[in-house]
Specification:
homodimer, 493 residues, alpha/beta, nicotinate phosphoribosyltransferase, 7-stranded antiparallel sheet, 17 helices, 21 strands, 19% strand, globular
Chain lengths: 493, 493
């Protein structure tokens, strides 16, 4: 069996450093969280948990892996350390919200507890899965939001950053709300709905010795006819190979009429270039006049949430949107900056065990971490989100009127009453075994939809959204300030 | 054996459409090319060929795949078609430049010839590999260019768009010129150099019951000491966990002195936050004064080519740059828009076979394709690039004085003489077998370096570079215009 070495090399050198210092088996707590949403969006959909759980099950070291690592780290000669790796199996505990949940900056999305060296070695793998998939799900959500109820179809595999990006990206996009994907393997692997009809090459393949525009039009008609014969009940034709108004559209209508004679109704047409508002109107009018008011118009061509919104604002009669590059790469902001930071570490003194809660001060204030074992409580009132409270795990859930205080702007406060408090992180993996069933894309998609439905339209706005209330419990805030002041060094200039 | 279904579903529906029309086995020629460089860069490094060749060898359909496809395409009931897939093995020919070669917009980077349905089914896979890896190699090249001879280290796995993006991205970055990667699996799989030392968590793990800044400083010293004991000859310390000037740097110097007493010289320090120009100067001065002029300063923290260039322009004494997110996602322009377009298709008439050379007109002029079987000739004069000529494969190489004419601005012309003409595309796969040896990252890296060395600094400039001459041969230009006029329909408004 072969194991991919999904870690940054420094996770190995650190593991060995811990080992040499004799602290590698101390209990450590790491948080995975992000500091700033992508696209200036106030939240992300937490996606990637199923990948994480499968990744942990496949995380290990065979003899091939050990040999390679020994070749690149010849300084490590302790056979005991290599034996530790040979026996590696993650025995810690992972806490996470349900896959698909809306999560805000600073909130732990994973809390990972276990032996220091084990927890350290998982760092990159956890981040890669969660960062990538949460990003794409959130990008998809924004496009679906812009489409205001019209279906959005993911078709970006060819521009994805590698094969995993295409396949896992399609899954994430589905969780974020797209209706279907063009990526066949994502359909096979995850059971999500797939779709596909024809590209321009299908039309051009019928361009037999074309010598005039009339012959080009005739060739397109042949192509459409061939496609309709192959898929009479799934006839969606791409109409912009040469000229939408003068060739593609009239040809499509000709074929649709023949289909109807045979008892089939067409799906519609796809436009992949030109001005989509103008061309969709031209198509709609012609299709309606020809007696095909139910034939759909699918638009694609470098769409993103803002183009979709503008097209609909102009009343473009588009029934579904195909999105490629901008979704599958989250083009306008292609990385979620999730990080993985030590929040607590066990120490022994005179035979007693203590948990320290160190923080990283850093030269950048926004990079200062939050101390301790934490959870997130979502506060709902009449089913609607009123705020989140990041608190210490061992605190009781809040009860009664709660004063929420902005962690930086302390004068920003509000009191919430009559709320329901829901603790978001719960154990999903413990003692070498996952505690939850396999998470299907449909389950996570439903979680996302429910979580999003709790937010107000103000929070979901694409541009300049309302900032949600995410505060720290008093106990956490006090711990945080204490840890800062224990480390802050006086600067004199 | 299981095969990933690395195609968009429409490639399957088109394949069936071709089959039903009886044209699926006609010879077709597709070009893979891009229209506009990423980052407004005038060229890309062509990378991904090794992935393509391995992908083709693994492209097929087992019974599991057929069953899945039958379940999603129940309309396809021809058992003959499914048998075609069961027997699928790509029997066509692929032409490509050497992996690593500089390629310009519109130039075919892959020319794929074979049976129409086979060539169509490869579309997405070819595009995904070439688009992603060429993009990352080009992004890396820009950062390496900005670093002006200082090493650049790739460390972006945690922000990569999935596991493949991390691993194949590290390979592409190495081909583009980075010196090392932090991604262990990329080192193992491709044999490229890896590196790694410590993160802030290593320091925080030693924060035992810290109650004052002095204790925090003491804890950091313990962490550094532990690391130096584990890796005495590889001691690179991250100095910004709490405070560079008051803690990290003095602690590092203390440890470096102890190392020297034991006969070891330190590698240096890493700064990962704050103002890197200021802090690097502070570090340099202190290290020099302490007698460590050879200790290096490594900088990281959201670097890209422009920050690197500006830091060096300000004289920041940084010896190496660690780049993460901005490289591994090509953040400022995260997709290369490569496309795959039909350039020729065989037809039979009265028992004779002809090759048609159709083009896609499209509603966007920039999306008009070039017809025919093409190659690219690179023109060098005294080893330096003077221009590229896209020409028909069956044309002779140019000889003697050559008038190069801009394909759009026809008045832009130049005559080149005494040049060497090098045909870039050569067959790399034929009849089910690759024709070239496995391409190592080092080979492709060398190809890239040689190809880049042919360009002038004006072409390699990061911002507003000089546009290279890439023209069409007269024969190709005439064919192109003829195919356009055969299809252009009169628009009257």
């Amino acid at each position: 069996m072969s194991f991919p070495l999904l870690f940054d090399f420094y996770e190995l050198t650190m593991a060995y450093g811990y080992f040499r210092a004799g602290i590698h088996e101390r209990t450590a707590v790491f948080d995975l969280f992000y500091r700033k949403g992508p696209f200036e969006h106030p939240y992300v959909l937490f996606v990637g948990l199923e990948g994480v759980l499968q990744g942990i099950e496949n995380f290990g070291f065979g003899e091939d892996e050990i040999r390679y690592l020994q070749s690149v780290a010849p300084q490590i000669r302790d056979e005991q350390f290599w034996d530790l790796l040979r026996r590696f199996r993650f025995h810690g505990t992972i806490y996470a919200p349900e896959e698909g949940t809306v999560m805000f900056p600073r909130e732990p999305m994973l809390r990972v507890e276990g032996k220091l060296f084990e927890v350290q070695l998982l760092e990159t793998m956890l981040l890669t899965y969660v960062n990538h998939q949460s990003l794409i799900a959130t990008a998809a959500h924004r496009m679906v939001e812009a489409a205001a109820g019209k279906p959005v179809i993911e078709m970006g595999a060819r521009r994805a950053q590698g094969v995993d990006a295409a396949i896992d990206g399609a899954r994430a996009a589905y969780i974020g709300g797209v209706s279907k994907t063009a990526t066949t393997e994502a359909g096979r692997r995850f059971g999500i709905p797939i779709t596909g009809t024809m590209a321009h090459s299908f039309v051009l393949a019928f361009h037999r010795d074309v010598r005039s525009p009339d012959q080009a039009k005739e060739a397109e008609l042949q192509a459409f006819t061939a496609y309709a014969e192959a898929f009479p009940d799934q006839c969606l034709l791409v109409v912009d190979t040469t000229d939408v108004e003068r060739s593609g559209l009239p040809n499509a209508i000709t074929v649709f009429r023949k289909l109807r004679e045979k008892g089939y109704e067409p799906i519609g047409v796809r436009i992949d270039s030109g001005d989509l508002a103008y061309l969709s109107r031209v198509c709609r009018k012609a299709l309606d006049e020809a007696g095909f008011p139910d034939a759909q118009i699918i638009a694609s061509s470098d769409l993103d949430e803002f183009v979709i919104r503008d097209l609909l604002a102009q009343g473009a009669p588009i029934d579904a949107f195909g999105v490629g590059t901008n979704l599958i790469t989250a083009r306008s902001d292609p990385a979620l900056g999730g990080v993985y930071k030590l929040a607590a570490i066990e120490w022994e003194e005179n035979g007693e065990r203590h948990l320290s809660t160190p923080i990283k001060l850093s030269e950048n204030p926004t990079k200062v971490t939050l101390p301790g074992r934490k959870n997130v409580v979502r506060l709902l009132k009449d089913g609607q989100f009123v705020g989140d409270l990041i608190m210490l795990e061992d605190e009781e859930d809040p009860k009664g009127p709660l004063r929420m205080i902005h962690p930086e702007y302390r004068w920003k406060q509000k009191v919430v009453t009559d709320y329901e408090a829901i603790r978001l992180l719960r154990p999903v993996y413990r003692d070498g075994r996952r505690l939850i069933d396999k998470i299907t894309p449909d389950t996570a998609r439903q979680t996302a939809a429910q979580s999003l439905a709790q937010l107000s339209p103000e929070h979901r706005r694409l541009h300049m959204p309302h900032e949600p209330h995410v505060d720290l419990s008093d106990a956490l805030y006090e711990r945080w300030m204490a840890e800062i002041h224990r480390r802050r060094m006086e600067k004199v200039q």
